[in-house]
Design a protein that fits this description.
It contains six helices and ten strands; from the N terminus they run αβαβββββββααααββ. The protein is of the alpha+beta class. It has two domains: 4-130, MutM-like, N-terminal (N-terminal domain of MutM-like DNA repair proteins, Alpha-Beta Barrel); 142-265, Helicase, Ruva Protein, domain 3. A four-stranded antiparallel beta sheet has the order 1-6-7-5, covered by helices on one side. A hairpin with a 2-residue loop joins strand 6 (96-102) and strand 7 (105-111). The chain is elongated and about 60 Å long.
Amino acid sequence: MPELPEVENVAVALRAHLTGRTLTGLKVKSASVLGQCGTSTRRALVGKALNGVHRHGKYLILNFSDGKNPDRQLMIHLRMTGQVFIQEGYIPDKHVHLIFDFEGLPVHYRDIRKFGRLDLVDDPISPSAIAHVGPDMLLVQFKDWHQRIAHRKAPIKALLLDQGIASGLGNIYVDESLFLASIHPLTKPASLDESQLRKVLRVCKKVLRHSIKNGGTTFMNYKNFYGKPGNFQSQLHVYGRGGEDCEICGSTIERIQIAGRSSCFCPACQA
């Protein structure tokens, strides 16, 4: 599932390639990925230029304007297998559901599982549709985050995955962050002191930024805006490595279920 680093890489590319370009056409091959009908989507966006791209956690919000009518916003949530990309010579397959035409430049939305959604929303920064989502993990201040999590007695792994506390982290980066912070995934935040929680937040942000620089992580479906996989998977310490030796201490990495998600950790480094 694309997490914050993967979505940020798409956002950066959208800004670089499409800012100022007018959406001149939209081909809808499957309207099931839209939160509204294809006709409404075209009416709202075609003829308007992309003048801003905002990312909040795992959500992208594209702002379109024609300088005359009210701006319109399109929010994209890639969820499990959604992909937004341009690729020279690409021939759309059956999993491409939308093709955006930006003055002759085709941008494809591909989604094998069709779980992703593209919705017209009411604000370019804080749409009401994601009012339930917490602050962005890269931007949240410790004081705010600490108030949201310090008293909780659920496993810290589950709480870091909770998008209502802070948004952007998913299974990959939670496992990696807890390993680097030397925190067992079943630890309750209420049992940690302030310095330990500061370290957790600091490491989470560091891991996310490092992954962004490496183009994100690809295991199965994620590809960036150019149709290329990410590179961060070669630097993972514990995620997906259950049963293997820890590269730090040599202990066997364990795999358990927490909040319905697979969790990998080193029983020695994260004791």
